[in-house]
Design a protein that fits this description.
There is one protein chain. The chain is of the alpha/beta class. The protein has ten helices and seven strands. The chain has two domains: 152 residues, Response regulator (Rossmann fold); 77 residues, no CATH class. The strands form two sheets. Strands 2-1-3-6-7 form a five-stranded parallel β-sheet, sandwiched between helices. A two-stranded antiparallel sheet has the order 4-5. Strand 4 and strand 5 form a beta hairpin.
């Protein structure tokens, strides 16, 4: 019954309130919090969503079906989203719309150079911006212009998804992460913090990333970000 209902919904004509009706969106995103935001936006827009949290999972999805839209985070646990974007852009038949996403607005140019048709800058909390970016990347798909009134434009993901992201980061930091793991957790937490509008956590993640890029091996940035993650987990309502 659920599959029948999904098929019925997906084949209804797109309208102003659901401009992405009938589209299938593959979201390749390691942050559950960011992915939850996109799930809500797809639901509100009429699109189906499939999620992959790493490159390996994305390739498994792509062996089974061809989405209309692929949204690819540039920093993934098993490699760069830029490589996946380039692969998708060069594949025939091509996915109609490929978008990159990152908390680093300066990464838009590299995503477009890799073959993306558009870019979504984090935080992903505007429904109209999300719809507009996808519609702009689908010139061959005539769709009604998106229209989202006032307060309805803002998306608030489930805090449980943020909790899951923090638990993941705490686990990586807790076993003495070094090298590539520290690089990954710095960019991961920066993206999570941007989505959560958490300025102190974002600043700590970016400071750790700068130290890593400069080759500084001091423990202070790691200790600071670990403490912030622990504080936020301690402040969460018990589950």
């Amino acid at each position: 019954m659920a599959d029948d209902l999904s098929d019925f919904i997906a084949t209804r004509a797109a309208g102003v309130e659901r401009p992405l009706q009938g589209l299938t969106v593959l979201v390749v995103e390691d942050s559950r919090f960011a992915c939850e935001a996109m799930r809500l936006m797809c639901l509100r827009s009429g699109a189906r969503i499939r999620r992959a949290d790493c490159l390996r999972s994305a390739h498994r999805h792509l062996q089974s079906y061809r989405p209309t839209v692929a949204i690819v985070d540039l920093g993934l646990p098993d490699g760069s989203g830029l490589d996946l974007i380039a692969s998708l852009a060069g594949h025939h038949p091509r996915i109609p719309a490929i978008l990159g996403t990152s908390g680093d607005g300066a990464a838009e140019g590299t995503a477009l150079a890799a073959g993306a048709d558009g870019f979504l800058a984090k935080p992903l909390d505007s429904l109209s911006a999300f719809q507009d970016a996808i519609l702009a990347a689908l010139p061959a798909y005539p769709r009604p212009a998106a229209h989202v009134p006032g307060a309805a434009d803002r998306i608030a993901p489930d805090p449980l998804a943020l909790h899951d992201d923090l638990v993941l980061a705490a686990g990586i930091l807790g076993h003495g992460a070094a090298g590539a793991e520290l690089d990954y957790v710095a960019q991961f937490l920066a993206g999570v913090a941007i989505t959560a509008h958490d300025g102190p956590l974002q600043a700590a993640a970016e400071a750790l990333a700068r130290d890593r890029q400069a080759g500084r091996a001091t423990s202070a940035p790691v200790n600071r970000i670990s403490g912030l993650v622990r504080d936020r987990l301690a402040a969460c309502v018990p589950f």
